[in-house]
Amino acid sequence: MSYDSTSTIVDRATQVADIAARHSEEAEAARRLSPQVVHAVRDAGFARHFVPLAHGGTAGGFTELTSAVFRVGEGCTSAAWAASLSAYAGRYAAFLPERGQAEIWADGPDALLAAALMPSGTARRVDGGWRLGGEWKYISGVHFADWALACAAVPDEPSTDPEGRPEVRYFAVPRDDFTITDSWYSVGMRGTGSDTLVLADVFVPEHRTLARSAVHAGRAPASDARCHIVPMHAVNSLPFAAPLVGAVRGAMRAWVERTGSRVDRRGRAVREMPSMQVSLARSAAEADAAELLVRRTAAVADGTESPADGEAAVRGARDLALAVELLVSAVDRVFRSSGTSGQSSTDPVQRFWRDVNSAASHVALSFESTGAAYGAWALSDRS
Fold first, then answer.
1. How far is Cα 103 from Cα 208, in angstroms, rounded to an integer?
2. Contact 293, 213 (CB under 8 A)
3. Strand 147-154 with 113-115, pairing
4. How buried is residue 218: exposed, middle or buried, by Cβ count under 10 Å (0-12/13-18/19+)?
5. What is the Cβ-side half-sphere exposure of residue 241, based on CA atoms within 13 angstroms?
6. Cα–Cα separations (whole angstroms), residue 58 to 180, 225, 296
7. CB 296 within 8 Å of CB 319
8. Handedness of CA 45, 17, 252, 191 (dihedral sign)
């Protein structure tokens, strides 16, 4: 498959969504995306979206990527999740030393990366680099990744953390250096293939590691593109929230298509029932409100909107967590309105419902923690 090189990633995403929708049941059964969907995601430009210009990438914006992820999500939540996370993994790799970046993108900017964002395993410094080993669970897209970024704490290294916590680093390892344990048996998001990454005491040279603090601060070593100088707090939850907007849109569209031909036991057209009309209206309004919150977070990251001083560090995460709560409410209502026929394992509404509820449990999308952070800032003495 090929795309017009002049079209944007948003334009191409529509075709990715169509392909992903056709292969969604296959992805559910296999618990990973089909090769056709993986190729579509790569060809559409997701992998290269945040890759530095020096390596042939796009160094693109957060708003554009978010819109593209929305579109893919309408076809398949797992495909949108994979597209989103592969793009953001490329952004993390842009913080590697130049030599490390050159190795990852030696064959072009479309290398697919999977990232383990939570520290695990063990890393010890050796001559010329590090020895790294252990297991990292729930690594979405690991089966089709050309490289993996494994995150590990290095307690023996000097720490810059103000609270004295150990230094944390990312380590880039090529596909030949890792194995995968089949462990992803989830009620939702089945197609993400989020299995376990395993490293058996592999050597990682110094030029293929970076301090997580550099990503948090937005200090890329060789690029001044906006996407490489944005602090982590501004976009930390964005790759996880964006796919769910598309998923709820997909659920509503599938519901409307089926409801258009349904009649109740008395022969009345379901589409003409005020209760169903109001139900759809409320879910659509919640999805619209969620989309606005997600788009605002992306606009702040792109620098096209500026929150109040100090608020940027806490508002985006709060907004995204609330957006996901709205999306869960919207898709729950659509699912409940589907009737018995909506319980079928082949009905796309129940798949979207499972996906949204499953993804909403991600720790980055917890309103309890993000809301507490915002509340603490809002109530603090900033005089």
1. 9
2. no
3. parallel
4. middle
5. 33
6. 30, 10, 22
7. yes
8. negative
Neighbours of 51 (CB within 10 A): 29
For 273, counting Cβ atoms within 10 Å of its Cβ (0-12 exposed, 13-18 middle, 19+ buried), the class is middle
Secondary structure in 3-state letters for the chain? CCCCCCCCHHHHHHHHHHHHHHCHHHHHHHCCCCHHHHHHHHHHCCCCCCCCHHHCCCCCCHHHHHHHHHHHHHHCHHHHHHHHHHHHHHHHHCCCCHHHHHHHCCCCCCCCEEECCCCCCEEEEECCEEEEEEEEEEECCHHHCCEEEEEEEECCCCCCCCCCCCEEEEEEEEHHHCEEECCCCCCCCHHHCCEEEEEEEEEEEHHHEEEHHHHHHCCCCCCCCHHHCCCHHHCCCHHHHHHHHHHHHHHHHHHHHHHCCCECCCCCEHHHCHHHHHHHHHHHHHHHHHHHHHHHHHHHHHCCCCCCCCCHHHHHHHHHHHHHHHHHHHHHHHHHCCCHHHHCCCCHHHHHHHHHHHHCCCHHHCHHHHHHHHHHHHCCCCC
Angle at 56 between CA 136 and CA 78, to 5 degrees: 40
Q: pLDDT tens, position by position, for the chain (383 residues)? A: 444 545 699 999 999 999 999 999 999 999 999 999 999 999 999 999 999 999 999 999 999 999 999 999 999 999 999 999 999 999 999 999 999 999 999 999 999 999 998 999 999 999 999 999 999 999 999 999 999 999 999 987 766 666 667 889 999 999 999 999 999 999 999 999 999 999 999 999 999 999 999 998 898 888 999 999 998 888 999 999 999 999 999 999 999 888 767 777 777 777 778 888 899 999 999 999 999 999 999 999 998 877 766 787 899 999 999 999 999 999 999 999 887 777 888 889 999 999 999 999 999 999 999 999 999 999 987 66
Which amino acid, one-letter code, is at 59?
Answer: A
Could you tell me if 197 and 119 are in contact, meaning their C-beta atoms sit under 8 angstroms apart? Answer: no
Judge whether 25 and 346 are in contact, CB under 8 Å. yes
- Among 171, 175, 128, which residue's Cα sits nearest to residue 153? 171
The pTM (predicted TM-score) of the whole model is 0.93
